[in-house]
Amino acid sequence: ATNTGFSIYSSKPFKKTISRDFSGGIKIVEMLFRCNMIGLVGTGVNPKHPTNKLLIWDDRQRRFIGEIEAKNEIRAVKLSYEKVFVVVDRKIYIYSFDDFALLEVFDTYQNPNGLCAINNLRKKVVVAFPERRAGTVRVVHFESTNRLVEVRAHESAVNCLTLNSDGNYLATASERGTLIRIWNAGSGALVQEVRRGIDKAFIHSLSFDLKSEWIVCGSDRGTIHIFKVCESEGEIKETSSALSPSTSSSSLIKNKRSKLGFMQRLLPKYFRSEWSYARFRVHENDAIGAFTAAPNKLAVVTKNSNYYLVSFDLLKGGDCIIEDDRNVLEADEASSNAS
């Protein structure tokens, strides 16, 4: 999103794929997966569109094909092939993508960051969002006659959440940001708990890889953490086809643990924690990360528009290796000057 429109980039190879100028500021850009439908919400230095109106842009036709107006400022937008999810501070509105008719409304906890996650399967739509009680997440499985699952995720308010592609895993972090918990999204059972650190942090992003074997965490502490997702939970393996290890060595990969873990019954819970398997440190504090199609490669973007493509050793973990490093804005300026 920019002060005049929006741009979309591919991560590998890194290049700008779409750039549109509307002569007005945009604050939210949400693609319908990788297709031509894009949701836009205006704001910025030169706001052309109000912050409470969602515009659906068809980039193939190069025109707006619909709009949804909310009563309050829109905090986030999520798109599936059949539904549009509009997040405001204490509610989530669900509309039909066909005619933008309102289908349902859910009350949420105070949600200034627009927390809402959907999976990316066309025939199995799952959405997760903060419940009205602090620390609780509601998961809605639309293919099961709106089957609702309530997850008591944390004692304090949830600060970040995500679903895997199948919609079988839910990952959450609280406003303290020290622990990340992975849940069975169908039953609400806890599958795994991993530790980002001991100091408080603002978690900006959580993201699973395509096979749900790894999860990456980005925060304001300057380190991207990569964790191995547990594969020993029979309950999950029965409900997800995406979790079978690709190699025999996959099940042997474990997150780091304290050397005093053998005394776990005598020591505090901290010493039983699972720590990140791999990590990447950036020069700035604020960063987000997501996996590419390759299982050991990530795209990392910082607050100052720095982009990194990094990889980690699947068998050893440790520090990531930088494969590409550039500033998005500087690359755009250089490209403009060259043309």
How would you describe this protein?
This protein is mainly beta and 339 residues long. Helices cover 5% and strands 47% of the residues. The chain contains two helices and 28 strands. It has helices at residues 234-239, 328-338; strands spanning 5-11, 14-21, 26-31, 37-42, 53-58, 63-69, 76-79, 83-87, 91-96, 102-107, 117-118, 126-130, 136-141, 147-152, 158-163, 169-174, 179-184, 190-195, 203-208, 214-219, 223-228, 256-257, 274-275, 278-281, 287-291, 297-302, 306-313, 317-327. The chain has an eight-stranded mixed beta sheet with strand order 19-20-21-24-28-27-26-25. Strands 15-16-17-18-23-22 form a six-stranded mixed beta sheet, with no helix packed on it. The protein has a four-stranded antiparallel beta sheet with strand order 3-4-5-6, with no helix packed on it. 36% of the residues are buried.
Briefly characterize the structure:
The chain has 339 residues and is mostly beta strands.
Oligomeric state of the chains present here: single chain
- Count of DSSP helices? 2
- The class by helix and strand makeup works out as mainly beta
Summarize the amount of helix as a percent range: under 10%
Order of helices and strands: EEEEEEEEEEEEEEEEEEEEEHEEEEEEEH
| Order of strands, widest sheet | 19-20-21-24-28-27-26-25
Number of strands: 28
Query: Which value, in Å, is the CA radius of gyration?
Result: 20 Å
Distance between the termini: 22 Å
Major sheet size, sense and barrel closure? 8 strands, mixed
Point out poorly predicted stretches: 233-248
Shape: globular
Strand content: over 45%
Mean pLDDT: 88
